[in-house]
Specification:
By secondary structure, the chain is mainly α. The protein has a domain at 41-122. It contains four helices and two strands; from the N terminus they run E-E-H-H-H-H.
Length: 123
């Protein structure tokens, strides 16, 4: 700064800040989600039901079919809960994606339905 023609030590910062700002030491900031709407439960349940139908339509001996159906049922149960957890639903979609390999993933409908469910859950 300049006072009376004499420079004084200091720092001058200009400009604007958008968003949260934190001053001080030891601040802890958690995840913040702004403007995100919760997933449409009925839409997810409808997609999960369609996915279950597609997976169940595979030959009974299709590898991974039973375990994939278990995860689909767990996802449906989570979405029917009074307060479904987005974290749990996202975790179950991750598990399901790993199970939808090989013969189960051959169906375009299975892959498309799984992707739609994931996009609705993740917003």
């Amino acid at each position: 700064m300049n006072r009376g023609g004499r420079a004084e030590p200091g720092i001058s910062i200009g400009g604007g800040v958008v968003g949260n700002t934190f001053i001080g030491d030891g601040n802890r900031v958690g995840d913040v989600t702004a403007g995100g709407a919760p997933p449409d439960r009925q839409e997810v349940l409808d997609l999960v039901a369609a996915l279950r139908t597609e997976i169940a339509a595979k030959a009974p001996a299709t590898p991974g079919q039973d375990s994939a159906l278990e995860v689909v049922d767990d996802l449906a149960e989570e979405m029917r809960a009074d307060e479904p957890s987005g974290e749990v639903a996202d975790h179950l979609m991750g598990k399901l994606t790993k199970k939808l390999v090989g013969a189960l993933a051959v169906s375009t409908n299975v892959a498309e339905l799984a992707e739609k469910i994931a996009s609705v859950i993740r917003g």
